[in-house]
Design a protein that fits this description.
- With 618 residues, the protein is mainly β.
- It contains two helices and 56 strands.
- Strands 2, 3, 47, 48, 51, 52 and 54 form a seven-stranded mixed β-sheet that branches. Strands 42-43-44-6-45-46 form a six-stranded mixed β-sheet, with no helix packed on it.
- The longest helix has 6 residues.
- It is globular.
- The two termini are 22 Å apart.
């Protein structure tokens, strides 16, 4: 090697964390807000609010896009509190009602100087946090009717006949009134924003968790609120897991109605875990539903309605409705539509469901070892099904295969296993990626993600708070839900649009620790060529920091701490015109890091080169 001749540092594509920083030879070891494009690290796109006219209530865990017959782009949005339909930036609350009626005479009691009122309704069935809309009330205790006749969230339940709400208006006297025509319309009981688990022998699967750790299992009635939805033509069918099936008519917007109220309704499911529409056959399929004649859910049973008639679920000589029982597992998890079939998970198996003609649907077992962590942890791209299990990632493209993931152990150990059901997957079509999100060990909510690049099998980790994802198609950009009540368009610019003005996105990628030369003698790195491409950056002077850390001896796990002569750090900003950087540092081992925290900056890392010479044995 001639002195001054640049030496390429060819770092392998993808990020590897399931080995020590030293054992992972010449690979990327850590990253955030990065992806792999043609084997090279590249910063992800930014995000901006899809609309800023309204915010939704609750934590969103379901997004669905479809078009009306007029071509309007619509989005369904389900939270643990409500269900909305968004059109043109406007949110419509279509949360179904569970009950609505005229309640007791003079049911409102005020207390002087307080804004809270008591409402008396015999056997109301409401819980704390539920929503009720009061109408028909008259002025009471100095609180005017306009302050009484509105939607409230219940703040306390006194007993089975009384609860309190906060009107925001102060009563001038203690009084009882409201009149004889007060109507209380109760929305569907709110869901949980977290999963409550039990523990004990037989809970969870063999081999899950560590020796001596209590196994966990979801306690009945304590599941995370999970919505599923599908379009029936231009209309929408929605199902909160463990509840009824509801229909929203886009031509006459109002609250979604239980399908049992539709004209000609017959044997409609009263409870289900998922609703899906087979578009070609024009039949709705309910999973984990009650059988005809029973009000109790059968967790492995699925039923379908008559062709073109979502109200008719009665089998017969003139009806194509029917139902079947899957055999393996104890709980239905999730179903996904594919080109010629529907993939259906139980808690232990994967089934393929296909339309068989006049006899209806049939299923076959694909795998009895295809556990999925939760009902949102799978996605379909190019007719291949991808999902996350508790200890790995899998795909089904005709045969079930485990996907090699060099982050698998890291992800498993960094997941809050009590919140498995919050794990969710999404497709980023533009880049041919599957994304998974999950809550880390010390978090109750989503804060981590990983990007799987299908074309080359590379993985890139990241930190991102997104509770639901909608791939592009109906909308120009992928959409995702934050925990701030906002929906975001992703791959939009290069900045974090959750703030106004936008904040820069912190994007970085860092290599493992690798020897400079053969690692036996110290080398002096005189110069470096970072090789960075500022891909369509919008900043006038985009900038990325190029950081090199040097060590004379291998540390135990990290080179982040400045230890005098052991670790030397060079950090140099790279701008559009930067080519060569003078370094002048020595060491036996080295780490390379690229990082940007500048507005309007997108970048791709190429192959860095260094010029180095021997610099002694000490």
């Amino acid at each position: 090697m001639a002195a001054g001749e640049p030496i390429p540092i060819k770092i392998q594509p993808g990020v590897v964390k399931d080995r020590t920083r030293r054992a992972a030879e010449l690979v990327w070891y850590d990253a955030n807000n990065m992806r792999m494009v043609d084997g090279l690290p590249q910063s992800i796109g930014g995000w901006a609010k899809s609309f800023d006219t309204e915010e939704f209530q609750g934590t969103c865990r379901a997004l669905f896009g479809w078009n009306s017959l007029s071509g309007a782009a619509l989005m369904g949005l389900g939270t643990h509190l409500k269900y909305y339909v968004e059109e043109g930036g406007s949110l419509t609350d279509i949360t179904p009602l569970r009950a609505s009626s005229t309640i007791n005479n003079n049911p409102i009691t005020t207390t002087i100087s307080l804004t809270t009122i008591n409402i008396n309704d015999t056997a109301h069935g409401a819980g704390v946090g539920d929503f009720v809309t009061i109408s028909g009330a008259t002025d009471t205790g100095g609180i005017v009717a306009a302050s009484l006749n509105q939607e409230f969230q219940i703040t306390a339940v006194t007993d089975s006949d009384n609860y309190t709400v906060d009107t925001g208006a102060t009563a001038s006297s203690s009084a009882t009134g409201g009149g004889a025509s007060v109507v209380a319309a109760y929305q569907l009981t709110i869901g949980l924003d977290t999963t409550v688990l039990g523990a004990g022998w037989g809970a969870s699967g063999w081999g899950d968790g560590g020796w001596g750790e209590a196994a966990s299992v979801t306690v009945e009635g304590s599941q995370l609120r999970v919505w599923t939805q599908d379009n029936w033509g231009e209309d929408l069918v929605i199902n909160p897991r463990g509840y009824g099936i509801y229909y929203y008519d886009t031509s006459s917007p109002a609250r979604a109605l239980n399908i049992s109220t539709l004209s000609g309704a017959s044997d409609t499911p009263t409870i289900a875990d998922q609703i899906i529409v087979s578009a070609d056959e024009r039949q709705a399929i309910a999973f984990g539903c009650n059988e005809i004649g029973s009000a109790v859910a059968n967790p492995l049973f699925y039923r379908w309605c008559d062709t073109e008639d979502i109200a008719n679920w009665t089998p017969g000589s003139t009806s194509a409705a029917g139902g079947l029982q899957m055999s393996l597992g104890s709980m239905f998890m999730v179903a996904h539509k594919m080109r010629q079939q529907i993939a259906a998970f139980t808690d232990t198996a994967l089934y393929s469901i296909q339309y068989l003609g006049t006899s209806g649907y049939g299923h076959r077992l694909v795998s009895d070892k295809a556990a999925i962590v939760g009902p949102k942890a799978a996605a379909v791209y190019n007719d291949v099904l991808y999902w996350r299990s508790r200890r790995g990632f899998y795909k089904w493209d005709g045969r079930v295969q485990e996907i090699v993931c060099p982050l698998e152990e890291h992800i498993y150990r960094d997941t809050n296993v009590s919140q498995w059901w919050k794990v969710h997957a999404g497709v980023n079509t533009e880049y041919g990626e599957i994304w998974w999100w999950w809550p880390s060990n010390d978090a109750e909510e989503i804060d981590n993600c990983v990007i799987y690049k299908i074309a080359d099998g590379t993985w890139t980790p990241g930190l991102m708070v997104r509770t639901a994802w909608l791939e592009s198609g109906v909308f120009n950009y992928p959409r995702a839900a934050g925990t701030d009540g906002c929906i975001y368009d992703h791959e939009f610019g290069f900045d974090d649009g959750s703030a106004n003005p936008a904040d820069p996105i912190n994007a970085y990628v860092e290599s493992c620790i690798f020897p400079v030369g053969n690692g036996k003698q110290a080398m002096r790195v005189r110069s470096a060529w970072p090789d960075v491409d500022f891909i369509q950056s919008t900043a006038a002077s985009p900038e990325v920091s190029f950081i090199m850390r040097f060590q004379d001896k291998m540390g135990s796990t990290s080179v982040e701490v400045d230890t005098g002569d052991v670790t030397r750090t060079v950090s140099t900003p790279i701008e559009v015109f930067t080519d060569k950087i003078d370094i002048g540092k020595r060491g036996r081992f080295m780490t390379i890091r690229y990082e940007s925290n500048k507005l309007g900056t997108g970048f791709r890392v190429g192959v860095p080169h260094v010029d180095m010479i021997p610099d002694g044995q000490r």
